[in-house]
Amino acid sequence: MDERPIDVGIIGGSGFYRFLDHAVEHQITTPYGEPSDRIVVADVAHRRVAFLPRHGRHHTIPPHRINYRANIWALKSLGVRYLISPCAVGSLQAWIKPEHFVVCDQYVDRTRGRLDTFCEGPDVFHVSAADPYCPNLRKIALEVIEQHGIEHHATGTIVVINGPRFSTKAESRWYTEAGFHVIGMTQYPEAHLALEQEMAVVNISLVTDYDCGLVADGDVAPVTAEEVRHVFERNSAAIRQVVLDIARAIPADLDCPAHHARQFAGISA
Fold it and tell me: Which residues of the chain fall short of a pLDDT of 50?
Protein backbone atom coordinates (compact mmCIF):
# COMPACT_ATOMS: atom_id res chain seq x y z
CA MET A 1 0.00 0.00 0.00
CA ASP A 2 1.33 3.44 -1.00
CA GLU A 3 1.53 5.51 2.19
CA ARG A 4 2.89 8.68 0.62
CA PRO A 5 0.62 11.67 1.39
CA ILE A 6 -1.80 13.02 -1.16
CA ASP A 7 -1.28 16.67 -0.31
CA VAL A 8 -1.80 18.37 -3.71
CA GLY A 9 -5.18 18.48 -5.42
CA ILE A 10 -6.16 19.77 -8.85
CA ILE A 11 -9.71 20.64 -9.80
CA GLY A 12 -9.91 20.97 -13.57
CA GLY A 13 -10.64 19.19 -16.79
CA SER A 14 -10.28 15.52 -17.60
CA GLY A 15 -7.57 16.32 -20.14
CA PHE A 16 -5.00 15.82 -17.39
CA TYR A 17 -5.72 12.12 -17.06
CA ARG A 18 -4.17 11.00 -20.33
CA PHE A 19 -0.71 12.04 -19.12
CA LEU A 20 -0.69 10.53 -15.65
CA ASP A 21 1.43 7.67 -14.37
CA HIS A 22 0.14 4.93 -12.05
CA ALA A 23 -3.33 6.44 -11.84
CA VAL A 24 -5.79 4.97 -9.33
CA GLU A 25 -9.43 6.00 -9.12
CA HIS A 26 -11.15 6.65 -5.79
CA GLN A 27 -14.93 6.65 -5.44
CA ILE A 28 -15.69 8.81 -2.40
CA THR A 29 -19.10 9.37 -0.82
CA THR A 30 -19.34 12.46 1.37
CA PRO A 31 -21.80 13.80 3.97
CA TYR A 32 -22.73 16.35 1.30
CA GLY A 33 -23.53 13.93 -1.48
CA GLU A 34 -21.54 12.73 -4.45
CA PRO A 35 -18.58 14.66 -5.92
CA SER A 36 -18.54 15.57 -9.60
CA ASP A 37 -16.70 12.34 -10.46
CA ARG A 38 -14.29 9.75 -9.15
CA ILE A 39 -11.01 11.25 -7.94
CA VAL A 40 -7.92 10.06 -9.78
CA VAL A 41 -4.70 9.83 -7.73
CA ALA A 42 -1.50 9.63 -9.74
CA ASP A 43 2.22 10.24 -9.57
CA VAL A 44 3.58 13.62 -10.61
CA ALA A 45 7.36 13.71 -10.22
CA HIS A 46 7.21 11.03 -7.48
CA ARG A 47 4.47 12.94 -5.70
CA ARG A 48 0.90 11.71 -5.28
CA VAL A 49 -1.57 14.22 -6.68
CA ALA A 50 -5.38 14.06 -6.69
CA PHE A 51 -7.34 15.15 -9.77
CA LEU A 52 -11.06 15.92 -9.90
CA PRO A 53 -12.97 17.23 -12.96
CA ARG A 54 -15.36 19.83 -11.56
CA HIS A 55 -17.87 19.37 -14.40
CA GLY A 56 -17.48 15.58 -14.51
CA ARG A 57 -15.17 13.82 -16.93
CA HIS A 58 -17.65 14.21 -19.80
CA HIS A 59 -18.56 17.82 -18.86
CA THR A 60 -22.13 16.94 -17.96
CA ILE A 61 -22.51 19.18 -14.86
CA PRO A 62 -23.20 22.89 -15.44
CA PRO A 63 -21.55 25.37 -13.06
CA HIS A 64 -24.68 26.10 -11.01
CA ARG A 65 -25.25 22.37 -10.38
CA ILE A 66 -21.74 21.42 -9.24
CA ASN A 67 -21.68 19.93 -5.75
CA TYR A 68 -18.85 22.17 -4.56
CA ARG A 69 -19.05 21.02 -0.93
CA ALA A 70 -18.78 17.36 -1.88
CA ASN A 71 -15.83 18.07 -4.17
CA ILE A 72 -13.85 19.92 -1.51
CA TRP A 73 -14.75 17.49 1.29
CA ALA A 74 -13.69 14.53 -0.85
CA LEU A 75 -10.29 16.08 -1.61
CA LYS A 76 -9.81 17.02 2.04
CA SER A 77 -10.62 13.44 3.10
CA LEU A 78 -7.65 12.26 1.03
CA GLY A 79 -5.33 14.71 2.81
CA VAL A 80 -5.13 17.54 0.26
CA ARG A 81 -3.57 20.73 1.71
CA TYR A 82 -2.72 22.58 -1.52
CA LEU A 83 -5.37 23.07 -4.21
CA ILE A 84 -4.66 24.19 -7.78
CA SER A 85 -7.82 25.49 -9.43
CA PRO A 86 -7.49 26.43 -13.13
CA CYS A 87 -10.52 27.73 -15.03
CA ALA A 88 -11.58 29.36 -18.29
CA VAL A 89 -12.61 33.02 -18.05
CA GLY A 90 -13.68 35.98 -20.15
CA SER A 91 -11.77 39.24 -20.10
CA LEU A 92 -13.40 42.40 -18.79
CA GLN A 93 -10.50 44.68 -19.70
CA ALA A 94 -9.15 45.35 -23.21
CA TRP A 95 -5.53 44.90 -22.11
CA ILE A 96 -6.20 41.40 -20.79
CA LYS A 97 -6.25 39.45 -24.02
CA PRO A 98 -7.43 35.97 -25.02
CA GLU A 99 -4.83 33.28 -24.27
CA HIS A 100 -3.34 35.36 -21.42
CA PHE A 101 -3.18 33.79 -17.96
CA VAL A 102 -4.35 35.68 -14.86
CA VAL A 103 -3.25 34.57 -11.39
CA CYS A 104 -6.18 35.99 -9.49
CA ASP A 105 -5.82 37.29 -5.96
CA GLN A 106 -9.46 38.31 -5.37
CA TYR A 107 -12.96 37.28 -6.34
CA VAL A 108 -16.39 38.93 -6.26
CA ASP A 109 -19.37 36.64 -5.72
CA ARG A 110 -22.39 37.29 -7.95
CA THR A 111 -23.84 33.78 -7.65
CA ARG A 112 -27.09 32.88 -5.96
CA GLY A 113 -28.52 29.82 -4.26
CA ARG A 114 -25.26 27.87 -4.03
CA LEU A 115 -24.48 25.94 -0.86
CA ASP A 116 -21.36 27.84 0.12
CA THR A 117 -20.28 26.91 3.63
CA PHE A 118 -19.43 23.99 5.88
CA CYS A 119 -20.01 26.17 8.96
CA GLU A 120 -23.60 25.31 9.77
CA GLY A 121 -23.37 24.93 13.57
CA PRO A 122 -23.51 24.03 16.34
CA ASP A 123 -19.86 25.12 16.34
CA VAL A 124 -19.81 28.55 14.73
CA PHE A 125 -16.91 29.74 12.56
CA HIS A 126 -16.56 32.93 10.54
CA VAL A 127 -13.59 32.20 8.28
CA SER A 128 -12.09 35.36 6.82
CA ALA A 129 -12.18 35.62 3.03
CA ALA A 130 -10.14 38.83 2.89
CA ASP A 131 -7.34 37.09 0.99
CA PRO A 132 -9.01 34.06 -0.62
CA TYR A 133 -6.02 32.89 -2.65
CA CYS A 134 -2.76 31.74 -1.09
CA PRO A 135 0.15 34.20 -1.52
CA ASN A 136 2.71 31.38 -1.30
CA LEU A 137 1.08 29.30 -4.02
CA ARG A 138 0.53 32.39 -6.17
CA LYS A 139 4.26 33.14 -6.00
CA ILE A 140 5.07 29.60 -7.14
CA ALA A 141 2.49 29.78 -9.91
CA LEU A 142 3.89 33.05 -11.23
CA GLU A 143 7.42 31.67 -11.28
CA VAL A 144 6.26 28.63 -13.26
CA ILE A 145 4.22 30.69 -15.73
CA GLU A 146 7.19 33.02 -16.30
CA GLN A 147 9.43 30.02 -16.97
CA HIS A 148 7.02 28.94 -19.69
CA GLY A 149 7.06 32.40 -21.26
CA ILE A 150 3.28 32.78 -21.16
CA GLU A 151 1.74 36.26 -21.27
CA HIS A 152 0.17 36.74 -17.87
CA HIS A 153 -1.06 39.12 -15.19
CA ALA A 154 0.22 38.73 -11.63
CA THR A 155 -2.98 39.90 -9.95
CA GLY A 156 -6.63 40.16 -10.85
CA THR A 157 -10.18 40.08 -9.57
CA ILE A 158 -12.50 37.45 -10.97
CA VAL A 159 -16.23 38.13 -10.76
CA VAL A 160 -18.14 34.87 -10.44
CA ILE A 161 -21.58 34.71 -12.01
CA ASN A 162 -24.10 31.95 -11.57
CA GLY A 163 -24.35 30.68 -15.13
CA PRO A 164 -25.09 28.82 -17.21
CA ARG A 165 -25.93 31.94 -19.23
CA PHE A 166 -23.31 34.52 -20.13
CA SER A 167 -23.70 38.18 -19.10
CA THR A 168 -25.81 40.77 -20.83
CA LYS A 169 -23.90 43.71 -22.34
CA ALA A 170 -25.16 45.93 -19.52
CA GLU A 171 -23.97 43.54 -16.83
CA SER A 172 -20.60 43.12 -18.49
CA ARG A 173 -20.07 46.89 -18.80
CA TRP A 174 -21.01 47.20 -15.12
CA TYR A 175 -18.32 44.69 -14.12
CA THR A 176 -15.76 46.42 -16.34
CA GLU A 177 -16.55 49.85 -14.90
CA ALA A 178 -16.28 48.39 -11.39
CA GLY A 179 -12.66 47.51 -12.18
CA PHE A 180 -12.97 43.72 -12.22
CA HIS A 181 -10.58 41.92 -14.55
CA VAL A 182 -12.05 38.57 -15.61
CA ILE A 183 -15.34 36.72 -15.33
CA GLY A 184 -16.11 33.07 -14.70
CA MET A 185 -18.68 30.72 -13.17
CA THR A 186 -16.91 28.30 -10.81
CA GLN A 187 -14.45 29.97 -8.43
CA TYR A 188 -17.18 30.66 -5.87
CA PRO A 189 -17.89 28.87 -3.62
CA GLU A 190 -15.07 26.48 -4.55
CA ALA A 191 -12.25 28.72 -3.29
CA HIS A 192 -13.99 29.68 -0.05
CA LEU A 193 -15.03 26.13 0.81
CA ALA A 194 -11.40 25.07 0.41
CA LEU A 195 -10.38 27.87 2.77
CA GLU A 196 -12.92 26.69 5.35
CA GLN A 197 -11.23 23.28 5.15
CA GLU A 198 -7.83 24.96 5.66
CA MET A 199 -6.66 24.19 2.16
CA ALA A 200 -4.40 26.72 0.40
CA VAL A 201 -5.79 27.62 -3.02
CA VAL A 202 -4.29 29.09 -6.19
CA ASN A 203 -6.29 30.00 -9.28
CA ILE A 204 -4.94 30.20 -12.80
CA SER A 205 -7.49 31.81 -15.11
CA LEU A 206 -7.06 31.16 -18.82
CA VAL A 207 -8.64 33.98 -20.84
CA THR A 208 -10.66 32.49 -23.69
CA ASP A 209 -12.54 35.58 -24.95
CA TYR A 210 -13.55 39.18 -24.38
CA ASP A 211 -16.79 39.43 -22.44
CA CYS A 212 -19.67 41.08 -24.28
CA GLY A 213 -19.35 44.48 -22.57
CA LEU A 214 -16.34 45.18 -24.78
CA VAL A 215 -18.27 44.82 -28.05
CA ALA A 216 -19.71 48.34 -28.12
CA ASP A 217 -17.03 49.69 -30.47
CA GLY A 218 -17.52 46.77 -32.84
CA ASP A 219 -13.98 45.40 -32.54
CA VAL A 220 -14.97 42.11 -30.95
CA ALA A 221 -17.98 39.83 -31.17
CA PRO A 222 -20.07 38.57 -28.23
CA VAL A 223 -18.72 35.39 -26.66
CA THR A 224 -20.05 31.98 -27.67
CA ALA A 225 -19.59 28.62 -25.95
CA GLU A 226 -17.95 27.30 -29.13
CA GLU A 227 -15.34 30.07 -29.03
CA VAL A 228 -14.55 29.35 -25.38
CA ARG A 229 -14.09 25.66 -26.17
CA HIS A 230 -11.81 26.29 -29.15
CA VAL A 231 -9.48 28.65 -27.27
CA PHE A 232 -9.33 26.39 -24.22
CA GLU A 233 -8.55 23.34 -26.35
CA ARG A 234 -5.89 25.27 -28.25
CA ASN A 235 -4.19 26.14 -24.97
CA SER A 236 -4.94 22.96 -23.05
CA ALA A 237 -1.38 21.66 -23.31
CA ALA A 238 0.03 24.89 -21.87
CA ILE A 239 -2.35 25.07 -18.91
CA ARG A 240 -1.89 21.36 -18.22
CA GLN A 241 1.90 21.67 -18.16
CA VAL A 242 1.79 24.78 -15.97
CA VAL A 243 -0.51 23.09 -13.46
CA LEU A 244 1.61 19.95 -13.29
CA ASP A 245 4.80 22.01 -12.87
CA ILE A 246 3.17 23.95 -10.03
CA ALA A 247 2.30 20.65 -8.35
CA ARG A 248 5.93 19.55 -8.66
CA ALA A 249 7.23 22.88 -7.28
CA ILE A 250 5.21 23.04 -4.04
CA PRO A 251 7.51 22.21 -1.10
CA ALA A 252 6.21 19.31 0.97
CA ASP A 253 6.52 21.35 4.17
CA LEU A 254 5.13 24.66 2.84
CA ASP A 255 3.12 26.39 5.57
CA CYS A 256 0.40 28.69 4.28
CA PRO A 257 -1.98 31.15 5.99
CA ALA A 258 -4.94 29.02 4.90
CA HIS A 259 -3.69 26.11 7.00
CA HIS A 260 -4.61 28.18 10.07
CA ALA A 261 -7.84 29.73 8.72
CA ARG A 262 -10.05 28.35 11.48
CA GLN A 263 -7.64 29.07 14.33
CA PHE A 264 -9.19 32.42 15.27
CA ALA A 265 -12.50 32.05 13.41
CA GLY A 266 -14.49 30.24 16.09
CA ILE A 267 -17.10 31.91 18.26
CA SER A 268 -18.05 30.19 21.48
CA ALA A 269 -20.74 31.04 24.01
Answer: none
